[in-house]
From TrEMBL:
This is Nicalin. One of its GO terms (biological process) is regulation of signal transduction. It is a single-pass membrane protein. It comes from Gossypium tomentosum (Hawaiian cotton). The chain crosses the membrane at residues 520-544. InterPro entries: EF_Hand_1_Ca_BS, Nicalin. GO terms for cellular component: endoplasmic reticulum membrane.
Amino acid sequence: MALSKNSGGHRGMQESMYSVIALVFILVACVELCDAAAAIDVYRLIQYDMSGSAYGSRFAALNHHAASLHFPPGADLSRAVLIIPLRELNITFVREYINQKKPLGGLLFLLPDIFSFENGGNKQVHEKEQLKNLLAELEQLLIHANIPYPVYFAFENDEIDTVLADIKKNDAIGQPATATTGGYKLVIPTPEPKKVASPTITNIQGWLSGLKADGDTNQLPTIAIVASYDTFGAAPALSVGSDSNGSGVVALLEIARLFSLLYSNPKTRGRYNLLFGLTSGGPYNYNGTQKWLRSFDQRLRESIDYAICLNSIGSWDNELWIHVSKPPENGYIKQIFEGFSNVAEEMDIKVGLKHKKINISNPRVAREHEQFSRLRVTAATLSEISTAPELLQGTGGLYDSRQFVNETAITRGVKLVAESLARHIYGHQGKNVQIFADGGSLAVNPAYIQSWLDLLSQTPRVAPFLSKNDPFVMALKKELTDHTDEVNMQHEVLEGVFTFYDSTSARLNIYQVASVTFDLLLLLVLGSYLIVLFSFLVITTRGLDDLISLFRRPPSRKVKTA
């Protein structure tokens, strides 16, 4: 009896061992089939609503086969993700697919490294400009369309290039990836996007107090220097806005640093207060600027002599524009323009004047100074761009990267503004007096400009995705605190017609999958193996007779009747 139990236990252990071996073989086979060919970071097309209408990519999760632009005519792309390198982009093809709402599983655009955060790219200037213009056109198409499938961006690298080359080869011979033929599968297992609840915007202001004369009880006049720091682009996780408006932010910080040196000494402190404002909500009708101005008491608002708004001054060659809302004949406007023109002439650069009257009945504003003008405060915007942008245009998109910004242009812009302001403050209008002369203790610092420009060019700043205490926002506050007094932060809810959704970036897994034919063959092999294994286990543990008996037809049982 004991012997029987032992041999039974031995047989049980043997059966378990063989079963484990079989399971291991099956798992190894599955792992080999499901191993990822590549895994890359991807950045989703923005999803937002404006006045109740849906725009951008409305989905995030992805689980489809990959295809290239070499797909055969008539191919069904409803369950395929088109991988399109920017260099190969046919904008007409993409526009037709989107506008005609043709079925598609998804889009993945591959961007050259010149648009990445890294300071890479050795392409010729002409090729860079071509790619920049093409990407700008693509971006405007995507952000103004309602796209019912996932759209992502990624940067070219060796892994994705190898995969794409393989996909192109299969597409070219008429074997696109499907469940039948196999190929590559793109998978992003992410939850569907949710609305961003009560997005906040944060304005930061600093103050340099002017010097009153003895016995003077009147309030000193104020000059405001303002720049909007947030961005908007097709991919929020990539919208760094090196030029728009990183260049304006850098210029404001350097101007604050220069005048802090002058105002730290009572002998050189001017008889003007200087107000520095870093505003948010710029792409959304300068919503933050409006809230900031409305927070001023009437006395402060009336003390503002004029405001200079800095926007996109990082990629100009020899000409800048001063945009105003009041007529050029206005005394204040003439004074501002003449002051800038005199300094510009000495620097051998040109400054033009652009007048655009605001429509009070229309809440839309094209430039930041127009929010000042609506409250009857004299203001102007200094920019390299001569024409007024459309809504959500030129707000720091994908194409606005570090490669296209020249810190020398920002340095010259800073000197132009600083010298013009100083001559106005110290009464040196029309005089060839250089307060911020090169090589002096008050010279513009190119290293300071470059360091801040590099930081801004690596920091996405789309307002709805920036928290109140975001490290970048706190860094701006700290920098203004170093150069100005009475630094304050104003937190407001972004109001208006916009609603935003999260899921701005993800990890894309690219799997090389086998065809159905291969799956059937594998299933046949595994089935045969399991049958053989089962037969072997029965023969070794119970004998051949027991195996044969399993396949015999059992004898019929006759039912006895009473």
